[in-house]
Amino acid sequence: MTSQHEISTVSSPPLETYKDFKLIDSFQFFNYGAVYKYRSTRTGLYITLAKISSPIMKAYMTLRTRPSDHDGIPHVLEHMVFLGSQDYPFKGLLDKVANRCFAQGTNAFTQSTNTTFELTTAGTEGFYRLLPVYLDHILYPSLTDSGFLTEIHHIDGNGQDSGVVYNEMLGRENSPDELIYNLFNEVMYDGSEGYQYNYGGKVANLRELTVEKVRKFHHEYYSPKNFNIIVVGNTTPEELIDAVQPMEQKILSLTKIEDPMSEFTVWKTPLPPLTQSVTKEIVYPSDDETSGHHVVIGWRAAPWKDLLTSYALDTLWNCLTVGDIAPLRKELVENESGDICCADLYCGVEKSFDNIHRVWFLNVEADKVKLIVDKFFDFMRNIKIDLDYLRLVINRDKLDVLRQFETNPHETFSHDLIEDFLYSTSNEDCRNLLDASKHASILLQKDEQYWKDLIETYILKPPFVALYASPSSERVRELSEENMQRLEQQKKALGEQKLKELEERLAKAELDNARSLDQKTLEEQFPIPSLAKIEEIHVATYRNDNNPNFSKTEYDKKLEQLLENHTIPLPFFFQLSSIPSQFVDLFCMMDSSNIPLELKMYIPLFLAVNFSCDLKYDDQYVKKDQVIMSLMRESVSYSYGCGYQDHQESSRNFHASLFAELLQFRLTFEIDKYHRLAEWTKHFLHDTIYTPEIIETKIQVLLSEIPLSKVSPEAVMSQGLKHMLVQPQSNHNVTSFLLQEKFLNETLAKLKTHPETVIDDLNRLRNILNKPENIRIHVVLDVNYFGPNNYKDIMSTWASVFNPKNNDESLKLEPYHRLCKWTNELTNMSEGRGILLGMGSADSGNLIKTHRGITNYELYHDRHALSVAINFLTMEEGPFWVKLRGKGLCYGSSISSNVEKGTVSLYLSRVSNISKTFAECKAILEAVCSDDESKESVFVLNENVLNSARATVIVDKLHGAETIISACQVRFLSNTLFGGSKNFYDSLQDIGKVTVEDVKIAIKKYILPLFRDKEGTLFICDNIAQVKQEEYPLRDALQKIGYLTTYHSLKEYLAAELGITTSYSNEMSIGDDVEGSDEEDDEEMEDEEQ
C-alpha cells in the first residue's frame, strides 16, 4: 500500500476568480480526483466539482430542506419540480430533453435534511445541454394545480385516493421499518428544528395538503444561497461555471439577493438535550405474530464537526457487529451455545449537526424482547477490548473506503460533498471528512482506555431511546376496517355529483398536463449528442481457453504479447483483466448445473458455512475464528452468492442472480498479497472442514432470515413467480426461502440424529463444485505492478497452488445455455396460469406478468430492438410513464428482458387499483400497435421518438460500465459467460441501427403476448381487503377462464402450491437490512445485463 498523502495541492492551480465565482477551496484527493469549490459573489450559488476520469458525468444538485410538520413537502417538491418550469412550462419536458441528451433519465431523493436532484449523462455534450433546463425546473418550477392533483394526491370518480406520491407513501407507511424510523425520530429529536418530522409525508397529511403550502416552502428554501451544484465527472470548473452563467443572469434579473455570501443557516442548530431515557412500544400489521419483533436503541453522539469521534464510533460498531467473529454478533446472533436472541443486528452513526447512533436488533425471539436491552448493556459493561481485532477492523475499513473511490467514485465523492455542504463550517471540514486514512492512523495509536471511555461516554452513561415493535394480526384487521370505513364515509360525504366533478377535474388536469413542446422545436434545441465524443474505457483481457469466438481487441493483443512466454497451463478456466489499481479482485465461479437436486437444496447452507468454518491443510488444523481473523487481516473484503455478482454486491443467502447455476465467491486483496489470495482460493475450494456445531449455528441464522421475507409482498411475489416459471432443479428455485424453511428445519433435525449424513452431503457438494472443469476464475489486477521480470508470477502463482494442467489438453468452456439449462427450459407459456395472493402486510398492490422472450444472446439486433422498444414504452414521458405514473395509478412500472431465463416481464409496484392499472397497460400496448392515425401523440412511434429511446438504451449500458472495474465485469459477462462475439462499444454502435419497424415487430412479438389472457405466468400480491372485495374485475375475468387461482393468506398458498403445511413458528426472523426489506428482489424486474 502506497504511503502517499491523500490530500495535496492540485497540480494546476485553479483561477481564484472566474466570472464572479470565487474559489473557496481546491485540493487533490490521493490519485482519485481533484476537488474544486466555488461560490458566486452575486447570487451565493455554490459549485463543487470532483474531477475524475470517467465517461459518466453526474450532478447532485442539493438544497437544504427543513420540514415543519408531517406534510412531507420536501418530498412533494422533489416530485413537482419535474412537472414543468417557467421557461419550459410543459410537464415531462425535462425528461424528454434528458432522453435526447444521453441522460439516464432524471432522478431525485429526499432525506431528513436535504433534497438532491440527480443528473447522469454519458459524456459532457449532453450534460451541458441538459443542465440549464434542469436548473430552471429546480429554481423556477411551474407548481401547477393540475400537476399537484395527478402527482401528489387526488380523489377519483369512485371516491378512491390516489396520486404518485400518495401511492408511494401508502405502500410504506405501515411497514415496521417505517413505523420504527418515524417514531424514533419523533422521540430522539423532540424539540429540534425539524429532524422529528416525516419528510416523506404521512398519507393523512397528504390528503389535506394544498399546493399553496408547497409554493410557500419552495420560495423559502429553493434559494441560490441554499443551492450547491455538485458535479462528479471529467470536466473543468470553468466549463461548469460557463454552463451556469445563463441561470445566474436570470436569478439576478428576477430577484434581489441580499448579502449573497452570507450563510443560509439551516441545520446548524444544536439539538436540545435528551434529559432522560425513553421507551416506546409499536405494533405493526402482520398476518404472522410468531416472528418479526424488532428492538432499537439509540443515543445522541458527538457533534458532526467531531469527525474523529464519529469515525471511532463507526469503527467500534463495525468491530462489534460486522462478520461472524464480531463479539456482539457472536453473543446475540451466532451464539454457538444455542442462546440466540435475535436474527441480525445493524448499527452505526447517523449524521446531523449533532449526530446520533443506534443499534437495531432484527427479529428478536419473542421471549427475549423485554430482555435484550438489558442483555446488551450487560455485555457492553463487561466487554473485553481486543486491541488487535480493533486495529484489524480499522485497517480494513480504511482500505475499503479507498476501494470505494476506485469502484464507485461518483457516489463516494458525492456522499461526502453533500454532507460537507449540509454541516461544515470551514474548508478543513471537507478535507477531514474525505481523509479517512488520517482518522485511521490516529485511532491505530489509541489504547484500551480510549475505547472504554468511548463506550462509557456514548453508550453506557447517556440517556437512550428504546423502541419495541411487535407484529399484530389485529392491526391488519383494524387498518382494513378503518380504511374501508374512511372510504365509505368519504364517498357518502362527497355524493355522486361531487364525485362526478372530481372525475371531471382529474380529466381536465390530465389534459392540462398533456401540453407539450412541439417536436420540431425539441429537435432543433436539443439534438442528439455524438456517441463518438464519449470517452471509451478499454480493458485488456487474457484468457487461457483459446476460444476462437472470443474477439480480441488491440488491447487484448498487447497484453497477450506482454505475457508471451510467461503463461503456464492451468487445470481450470482463467481470465485476466488488467487495469490500474492498487487492489486485486478474484471472482471464483463454480458450475452447479450437474449437481443432483437433493444436494442442490444445500446450496444456501453450503455458501454460508463454507466461508465460515474450520480449515485443514498442510497438516494444520485451523479453527473457524482464527480462519476469519486471518482472512480479515489479509483481505480488503469478501463475499459469496448464487449467480454472477459484481464487485459491489454483498452476500445474500436466499437469492439467485444472473447465471444462477454459478456459485461465486469474491475476494479483494491488496495487490502485494496476490499469492495469498490464490492460497485462500484453494482453501475455500478444497480445505474446508464442516462440523455439526458450525452447521447448526448457520442453519439457525439462515432460518432466522425467513420470517421477515414472508411478510414482504415483494419477496413473496418474486419467489412465487420463480416457482411457476423455472424447473425444480434451477437454483432460482432451490434457493427460495419458501422451500428452504422446510428443508433447513429437516436438516437441523437430521443433524441432531445423524450429523455425519449432513456433513457427507456438504462434502459431496463441494467435491463436485471444485472439479477443474467446473471452475472459472476471473482475476482483475494491474499487470504493470509485476514488471517484465515477474509477469510469470501472475499465472505461476496459481500453478503453485493447484496442480498444473497437461500442455496437450485444451480447455473448453461450456456455453452459457448449459449454465442456465434449468432456468431457460421454461414451462409452456402458451398454457400459463396466474396467482392472486392477499396479504395483510400489503398496503397496496404489486404485479409481475412474464412471457417467453429472447433466448439467444447472439441475436444482437433482436435484443437491441427489444431494448429500444422497452425504453420507448417505459422511459420518462413515454407511454407507460404518462398513462400510469402520470395519472397516479401506480408508483412504479417497468418491462424487462432476461436472456438467461429467456423471458420478458411486466412489473407494477405500489398500485392502488390492480385491475384498472393492468387494463391501462394493455390499452397502451394496443394503442401503440394500432394503425389509427388519430391516436394520441404519446402512442405514436416514429423516428423522432426512436432517437430518444435509442439514446436511453445507450446511456443505460454505458452507466453499467462507468468505471474501469465495472467495464471489466461487463466484458466478462457479455463475452465470457454469454459468449457474445461483439465487444461492448461495437454493440453500442449497433443500437443506432434499430428502426421503427424493428421496434414494432419487437413489441408485437415479445411484449404484447404479456396481455394474452391464458398465456404466461402472473403473480399478484395485494392487500387482503382489496382481494376480498366483491368488485375485482381482473380477478373475476381471469378466474372465469380458469387461469387465475386466488389465495387469502400465505399459509393457504403454501399448502396448495408447495405442499408446505407445517408452520415453523419457533424460528426467528431476519432481514439483510430492515430499510431495504421491501425492495424488489428479482432479476425479472431488472433490465438484462450487458
Describe it.
The chain is 44% helix and 19% strand. The chain is of the alpha+beta class and 1090 residues long. Among the domains are: 17-268 and 515-525, 2-Layer Sandwich (Cytochrome Bc1 Complex, Chain A, domain 1); 540-802, Metalloenzyme, LuxS/M16 peptidase-like (Cytochrome Bc1 Complex, Chain A, domain 1), CATH 3.30.830; 833-1058, Cytochrome Bc1 Complex, Chain A, domain 1 (2-Layer Sandwich), CATH 3.30.830.10. The strands form 6 sheets. Strands 1, 2, 3, 4, 5, 6, 7, 8 and 11 form a 9-stranded mixed β-sheet that branches. Helix 34 (879-885) packs antiparallel against helix 35.
Features of the shown structure:
alpha+beta, Cytochrome Bc1 Complex, Chain A, domain 1, 1090 residues, Peptidase M16C associated domain-containing protein, 9-stranded mixed sheet, Metalloenz_LuxS/M16, disordered C terminus, globular, 19% strand, 31 strands, metal ion binding, coiled coil, Pept_M16_N
What's the arrangement of secondary structure elements?
Layout: E1 7-8, E2 17-18, E3 21-29, E4 33-40, E5 46-51, E6 56-64, H1 73-80, H2 93-99, E7 103-110, E8 114-122, H3 124-139, H4 145-151, E9 154-155, E10 161-162, H5 164-170, H6 176-188, H7 203-208, H8 211-221, E11 227-233, H9 237-254, E12 278-285, E13 293-303, H10 307-321, H11 327-332, E14 344-350, E15 354-364, H12 372-381, H13 387-407, H14 409-423, H15 427-434, H16 436-444, H17 448-460, E16 465-472, H18 473-513, H19 519-525, E17 540-543, H20 554-563, E18 573-578, E19 583-591, H21 597-600, H22 603-610, E20 614-617, E21 620-622, H23 624-634, E22 635-642, E23 662-670, H24 674-686, E24 688-689, H25 692-710, H26 713-725, H27 731-734, H28 737-753, H29 755-769, E25 775-781, H30 793-801, H31 816-819, H32 821-824, E26 833-839, E27 845-852, H33 860-874, H34 879-885, E28 890-898, E29 903-911, H35 914-929, H36 943-959, H37 964-977, H38 984-991, H39 996-1007, E30 1017-1023, H40 1024-1027, H41 1033-1040, E31 1044-1047, H42 1050-1058
Parallel strand pairs: 5-11, 12-16, 18-25, 26-30, 26-31
Antiparallel strand pairs: 1-3, 2-3, 3-4, 4-5, 6-8, 6-11, 7-8, 9-10, 13-15, 13-16, 14-15, 17-18, 19-23, 19-25, 20-21, 20-24, 22-23, 27-29, 27-30, 28-29
Coiled coil: 477-519
Pfam families: Peptidase_M16 (PF00675), Peptidase_M16_C (PF05193)
Region (Disordered): 1067-1090
